[in-house]
Amino acid sequence: QLNCRQPSRPGIGPREEEGSGRYRRRRVHGMLKLYYGLNEEGKAEEEQESLDPCDINGPHFDPEHYLNKLRRECSLAELMDQETCMVKQIRSLDSDMQTLVYENYNKFISATDTIRKMKNDFKKMEDEMDCLSANMAAITEFSACISGTLQDQHAQITKLSGVHTLLRKLQFLFELPARLNKCLELQAYAQAVNSHRRARCVLRQYSHLPSFKGIQDDCHAIMDKLAQELRQKFRDGGSSAKDLAQCVELLLQLDEPAEELCDKFLSHARSRLESDLQGLEAEIRPYPSAPAVKDFIDRGCNEFVSSLCLVIASYQELFINHAQMANGKLHAFVDDLAARYFSLVERRIQEEKGVGDNSLLVRALDRFHRRLQAVAKLLPGSPVPNKGIEIVIRAATERVKQYLAALQSFYMDSLTDVRQALATPRDAPTSLPELLSSLSASILNQIKSVLASVHLFTAKDITFSNKPYFKGEFCSQGVRESLVVNFIKFVCQSSRQFCESAGDKGGSTPPVLLLLLSRLCLDYETSTISYILTLTDEQFLVQHHSPVTPVTTLCEEAREAAQKLLNHYVKVQGLIISQMLRKSVETRDWVNTIEPRNVRAVMKRVVEDTTSIDVQVGLLYEEGVRKAHSSDSSKRTFSVYSSSRQQARYAASYTPSAPMDTNLLSNIHKLFSERIDIFSSVEFNKVSVMTGIIKISLKTFLECVRLRTFGRYGLQQIQVDCHYLQMYLWRFVSDENLVHFLLDEIVCSSAHRCLDPAPMEQSVIEVICERG
To answer: What is the CB neighbour count within 10 angstroms for residue 269?
Structure first.
């Protein structure tokens, strides 16, 4: 049975068979635990034994009694089912037992081999232990024999050893003066002091003996001479800091006054450190040949700061036992020299005016800050490290101001380039959008470049970047507010200044530049400001702990600047056209002029300039909304000549009351007409801009006409000019009735001031204008 193999069940894969095998093993183990009365931890469960003879699992089971009970209580079918169930359980238990024995067969064999091998190994070990025990017994016997032999001579050997040690000490004492002289000749001062310290207590104890008294006097004379040489070496000042510290240490061991040595030590150290400061100051004065700021900081750290740290460490090591007296002297010494060093560093940093490569300055400040941390570790409580970080903060703040000035200068230079480009004639009309795009892109790229340079102050590998200032206030107030927000405000303010130039033509500012800047400010309001501030906040992880300028405030300021620039552009362009109209009215004799045969050239020029402005504005602004045009807008006749007012006003018979009635009718008509605001703010679209320019031009034309007196042909010339303007200007404005009303007013005013008001026929006017 042990060698038989369980055949695998057909139709079951390896994994299923393996899983079912594990289940069967757990089931068999569970049954065995149940049979032996073990719990999950392998301990026997304490249960009361069952006395029921019908309990098949109990120790008092009685087969006959169990069968009689079944036959008595169960039917035939139930008996058959009970038999079938019991047969299945017997077979299952047999199969499980067979499987359990088969699976553990190899373990049984291995355990048997292991037990056999252990028996052999323990037998060999017992032999070795017996041998070891015999050897230990022999060694013990030999040791007892040797101890017994040497016991008599042990006391004598100990006595001789003590005498030998004493003789060596006496020899050292008698040779001490010669040894000290030899050390003095070789300048082995440390060895001489150590030798004297070893013998000083013995000589003082036995100084009452003449021989020891002589040795003591000789040693004192030699050590006095040695102390004098150490003092001379200390005063000379040519020694290094390490040699100086050794001199002080030896003098302290020779019982020199500690406070006097403190002052001398610091005085000597001051002279050496001041020479380092003088060398640094010499590098600042000849600025053209001065080294880079990083080289300057490196020299200061390698020479001055390193020497200062060495002085602090040596001082503390030498005078540690005199802390109360020495601490104050050291702090005052360090604070004084550090203040002078910081002054030189700030002077050198202030000379860094260029903003090309910021990495050199940041690396120099990082090195400066790192080396000062050594002072903080050596001298806790010193204000030197805090003053150093203040210098770094001031340098970073000053650098931000320099970058702001550089951005402002770049912006003004860019505007100068734009003005030169606008002054250069170009064939392509699309040059204006290209100039705007180029200007906006160049400014944005410059801002990004500046932010990248400033971001070096907050890089992770920079030691001072983890300071609270650089994590908070520098990012929010230094970069966001002082740099980015101030530059955006500068763009808006400098743009508004172009509107403050005096003169009818806007001074020296080209009108197209006003238009370009208005569109630039409008783009800033719609998208650029939000993009720049979002970029700044993300790049510098700005946390708004302190109050900052909201984006909406900057956008309102940019929109206000754009509105002011566009209004000024409308005013300037309107005044340019008005100037032409004013001169054309003032320089003509309207009473004695000839009969009109064509449109005046100035009117053609007005239409040409208006068309050019329309194209110019359309390159930067959208079309806008117009009111519906009538189908005959260009052919419209003026009401003053087609209405009953014309017939009443220009009837063949003039009565004294006729002018009064005409003026009354005209004034009543004005009362019920919509008021026209000539200099109202325009909207950000082409139609509104053109409407504003045309309103200013026609209003100027009207006011000039009201100041002149006209003859018959003068009135007719005004009719022709106004009709020509009507043919073209209506298509530029948002409401054509505005043009009709103003031109109506011009013709009416001419008629009121005409000495012989005889209007020209409408058909003749149309022929002249079409021919013109």
So the answer is: 22
In angstroms, the CA 323 to CA 155 distance is 52
pTM > 0.85: yes or no: no
Return the pLDDT at 656: 30
Residue identified by tokens 């089931």 is: 27
- Region class of 605: left (phi > 0), else alpha (psi between -120 and 50), else beta: alpha
How many alpha carbons fall within 13 Å on the CB side of residue 419?
A: 12
Q: Please give the Cα distance from 737 to 685 (Å, whole number).
A: 19
The pLDDT confidence band at residue 26, using thresholds 50, 70 and 90, is: low
**Three-class DSSP category at 710:** strand
* Cα 33–Cα 37–Cα 40 angle in degrees, nearest 5: 55
Residue 254 to residue 170: CA distance in whole angstroms: 23
CB 418 within 8 A of CB 443: no
pLDDT digits (tens, 9 = 90+) for 594-606: 888 889 999 999 9
Helix (H) or strand (E) holding 538, with range, is helix 529-540
pLDDT of 380 reads: 87
pLDDT at 195: 72
Distance CA(477)–CA(456), nearest Å, equals 17
What are the tokens at 399? Answer: 């650098």
User: In the 8-state DSSP scheme, what is residue 485?
Assistant: I
Total length of the chain: 772
Q: What is the pLDDT of residues 715-726, one digit of tens each?
A: 999 999 999 998
3-state secondary structure of 44: strand
Cβ atoms 610, 729 nearer than 8 A: yes
